[in-house]
Design a protein that fits this description.
The chain is built from 13 helices and 15 strands. It has a seven-stranded mixed sheet with strand order 1-9-8-5-4-2-3, with helices on both faces. A three-stranded antiparallel sheet has the order 7-6-13, with no helix packed on it. Strands 12-14-15 form a three-stranded antiparallel sheet. It is globular and about 75 Å long. The structure holds pyridoxal-5'-phosphate. The site of pyridoxal-5'-phosphate (PLP) has 14 residues, from helix 3 and helix 4.
């Protein structure tokens, strides 16, 4: 059996390990100075004014929606071509989800279809930067402004990417990041909300600690005494530990290098797979520098997807499919969503295969993937 090559993997070096060990020997294990440093690294890299680090991307989505004022009876508009958490976090708050179809080339929320989906209860538009390719933020911003809606980004894939020269993290009213091991940088588990909105950041920070604050400016009874704290919202324990934050700060030093390597791998795939007529390679808009979290090819014939996937798996390639439309999950079907709702997303799902891409992948690894793909389409096409 050839060596297994996953679709994505972290890159952790000795200096990352040393940064974690330093914290383990320090006074703080959780939500102390290492979290402050990590949040500073996130604002530094994105250009956003505030960062609130939490213990997963999913809790970041939950905190972001809560902080944006989304609650029972409200609705978000988002794409079904995403990880379930994008939608789940709205359900946690008693809100509902209106799924809108995607652009066939990028897999991103199609701005041309968003306006018709906006109703009385809509509170926010939530694009996903699918595969690390930023959504069409200027068009989405215009729609959000016209209807008085929040623009909230699921940027779990796209830290380090830019749209019209502007970095992810500054493109929406708030953006959620994930630091799961396959994401652009890792804290093992972790996430963050980045935003320029001070009030939104403050609400997200409170949500991270049970809705409790000790901040004198927020207290109703500041004169009780120095021990006093107050719970203002029903929050959660979503704190990131200092141990994880130290790993994150160390990883952030490498963000540019990691993203640069992903771009080089994507360019190599683009060049070496251009002659494979059976496949459509990932789309890229002119005004975007993607972060290439995923490299998703599509089979032109849907019937080719399954045998090609099986062939690549049998040759040790950790291929994946991103994503099955969220509303196809039995949980969502039971809520009343029906197949056929978003035909482009369903066609995308039916033809998609994610090839391995991660910064530590060697050029030889890339060539191996390309060779296996070439051999497969010859046998199967
Ligand atoms: C990874 C991911 C998340 C959040 O995931 P966590 O595992 O909770 O960090 C959210 N949305 C998308 C699109 C993701 O890929």
């Amino acid at each position: 059996m050839p060596e297994f090559l996953p679709y994505g993997r972290q890159w952790v070096d000795d200096d990352d390990v040393a940064a974690v060990v330093d914290v383990l020997r320090s006074d703080y294990l959780t939500t102390g100075p290492a979290v402050d440093r990590f949040e500073a690294a996130l604002t530094g890299a994105t250009g956003a004014t505030h960062a609130v680090a939490v213990n997963s991307g999913t809790s970041a989505l939950h905190a972001m929606y809560f902080a944006a004022g989304i609650g029972p009876g409200d609705e978000i508009v988002t794409s079904p071509l995403t990880f379930a958490a994008t939608a789940n976090a709205a359900l946690y708050l008693g809100a509902s989800v209106r799924f809108v179809d995607v652009e066939p080339d990028t897999g991103n929320l199609d701005p041309a279809l968003v306006e018709a989906a906006i109703g009385e209860r809509t509170k926010a538009i939530v694009p996903i930067d699918f595969a690390g390719h930023p959504a069409d933020y200027d068009r989405l911003r215009a729609i959000a402004d016209r209807h008085g809606l929040r623009l909230l980004a699921d940027a779990a894939h796209s830290l380090g990417a830019t749209y019209k020269g502007r970095p992810v993290g500054t493109l929406a009213d708030a953006s959620e990041l994930s630091f799961h091991p396959v994401k652009p940088v890792t804290t093992a588990e972790g996430g963050a909300v980045v935003t320029d909105d001070a009030e939104l950041a403050q609400r997200a920070a409170r949500f991270r600690t049970h809705g409790i604050t000790k901040n004198a400016a927020e207290l109703e009874h500041p004169d009780e005494g120095p021990w006093w704290y107050e719970q203002h919202d029903l929050g959660f324990n979503y704190r990131l530990t200092d141990v994880h934050a130290a790993l994150g700060t160390s990883q952030m030093h490498k963000l540019d290098r990691f993203v640069g390597r992903r771009r080089a791998i994507a360019a190599k795939y683009d060049a070496l797979l251009a002659d494979v007529d059976a496949l459509e390679l990932p789309g890229r808009r002119d005004d975007v520098e993607p972060g290439w979290h995923l490299y998703v090819v599509r089979t032109r014939r849907p019937q080719l997807r399954k045998p090609l996937f099986e062939h690549l798996s049998a040759h040790g390639l950790g291929v994946q499919v991103h994503y099955l439309p969220v509303y196809w999950h039995p949980y969502y079907a039971a809520l009343g969503y029906r197949r056929g709702l978003c035909p482009e997303a369903e066609r995308f799902y039916a033809s998609a295969i994610t090839l391995p891409i991660f910064p530590a992948m060697s050029d030889d690894d890339v060539e191996r993937v390309v060779d296996v793909v070439h051999a497969a389409v010859c046998t199967l096409a």
